[in-house]
Automatic annotation (TrEMBL):
The keyword Nucleotide-binding does not apply. Keywords: Disulfide bond, Electron transport, Redox-active center, Transport. It holds the Pfam family Thioredoxin. This is Thioredoxin fold domain-containing protein. It comes from Pseudomonas bharatica CSV86.
Length: 169
């Protein structure tokens, strides 16, 4: 959809006159897009923004049989996995979160390649916390192929986590 941008930054005229395209990074429906913008300024014709390409998806470096740390950048890619992904949303100051981390580190190797386990620090990755409506920690969410299958609140014992996972494996 075309839109106009009014710019009053330094050297705008010189850049515009040389035909340089200025870029702006924006967040569109949860995906990062780099958009080339021809600026509208007094005395210049109006132009519309034109996409110059999407940023590549952030790569998830899975820890086989371990617990992978995710961020706002790579979480969207991680949940698309065809292998179920159990994600623990946590914070550094949360005592039950630390206990759950130990449980997950013991649990992960038991599933081999049939389950991926990851953690997201919601203090450092607030966009992820907001996107997935995390209002208290710890909370785990199970995903497969981009679909949220289950929410598991609190520091659950390993037996309870296994029981929940068995419904989706």
């Amino acid at each position: 959809m075309p839109f106009n941008v009014t710019w009053s930054g330094p050297d705008t005229n010189a850049l515009y006159e040389r035909g340089l395209e200025l870029t702006h990074t924006t967040l569109v429906e949860g995906s990062h897009w780099v958009v080339g913008v021809n600026l509208t300024q007094e005395g210049f014709p109006e132009h519309s923004a034109k996409p110059v390409g999407a940023r590549p998806a952030a790569i998830v470096d899975w820890v086989p049989g371990g617990v992978t740390t995710l961020t706002d950048d790579n979480l969207p890619e991680a949940i698309k996995s065809s292998t179920p992904v159990l994600i623990d949303f946590w914070t550094e100051w949360c005592g039950p979160c630390k206990a759950l981390e130990k449980t997950l580190r013991e649990l992960s190797p038991q599933y081999g390649g049939n389950l991926r386990v990851a953690r997201v620090n919601t203090d450092e990755n607030s966009a992820s916390g907001s996107k997935f409506h995390i209002t208290s920690v710890p909370v785990m969410k199970l995903f497969k192929n981009g679909e949220e299958l289950e929410t598991i609140p609190g520091n659950q014992p390993e037996s309870r986590i296994k029981e929940i996972l068995s419904r989706h494996m």
